[in-house]
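Onboarding guide, step 5: your first structure request.
Type a short instruction followed by the sequence, for example:

Predict the 3D structure of this protein.
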Amino acid sequence: MISHPFPPFFDKDSKVLILGSFPSVKSREQMFFYGHPQNRFWKVIAAVTESKLPVTIKEKKELLKNNHIALWDVIASCEITGSSDSSIKDVVPNDISEIIKNSDIKYIFVNGKTAEKYYNKYIREAIGREAVCLPSTSPANAGWSFERLVDAWKVIKV
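The system replies with structure tokens like these:
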């Protein structure tokens, strides 16, 4: 069983919550979200917010804060092989109520179908809020070009 190794990112002014499934091996090593260079998350967020592409964790946090974006994952712990979402089992969900209570979240989005599946299974009813599923920024979602991802993700801009 692997536990999520780092805390959610949010502050009292966060308006948009984006939930992934569970951090990749690279993200767990870096102790921050979307650490694998092939994941298009940061490129997409920078394009949608018309910001410079963040490189350091400090720059990533500034980009999120400046755009009122909170990040967390649906899963607190699970069995997983490498970074493969399809291998996830024995899921223990995260409690996102702390984020909801201590911020100004207006919208919840999930990054891909795995996050959507576990959100709907474990979290939606507990907090009484729907989440909008966005196409995954993972390199495994090769069917979506960068341009299509940016277009789909524009809904996060509030």
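Each response can be followed by summary notes, for example: The first strand starts at residue 2 and ends at 3.
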